[in-house]
Amino acid sequence: QGQLVESGGGLVQPGGSLRLSCKASGITFSVYTMNWYRQAPGKQRDLVASITSAGISDFADSVKGRFTISRDNIKDTLYLQMNNLKPEDTAVYYCNAQVRTVVRDYTYWGQGTQVTVSS
Predict the structure, then answer these.
(1) Average of per-residue pLDDT across 15-42
(2) Are residues 63 and 57 in contact, defined by beta-carbon separation less than 8 angstroms?
């Protein structure tokens, strides 16, 4: 059974940086499209950034130019580098893994890590 464990969240001042990590186990990490979602209190969970198995990345407009997503297929780990953080980036950040096979789709979620941007 696949498992995703996020780390790296915390409290940071506006303009600061954080790097989130997501360690995967129990899955063939390299074939999965990996995503970061976030959910602020009272709001829906939104896609922030994604990276395919081929290393192609995409970002929500709200974080373009500030966030970078990367993956290490040797360490089975996904990263989200967040720079120039803003108070509106405050949310619980979730790691997500998705793959589509002939038989079925597979998706896994982490437990989330809190990011708070405040002075």
Answers:
(1) 97
(2) no
pLDDT tens for residues 62-106? 999 999 999 999 999 999 999 999 999 999 999 999 999 899 999
88 φ, ψ to 5°?
-75, -5
Tokens 């290490």, residue located: 72
Provide the β-strand partners of residue 12: 117
Q: How far apart are CA 23 and CA 45, in angstroms?
A: 21
Residue 1 pLDDT > 90: no
- Residue 47, CA distances (Å) to 14, 54, 93, 104, 108 in order: 21, 19, 10, 22, 14
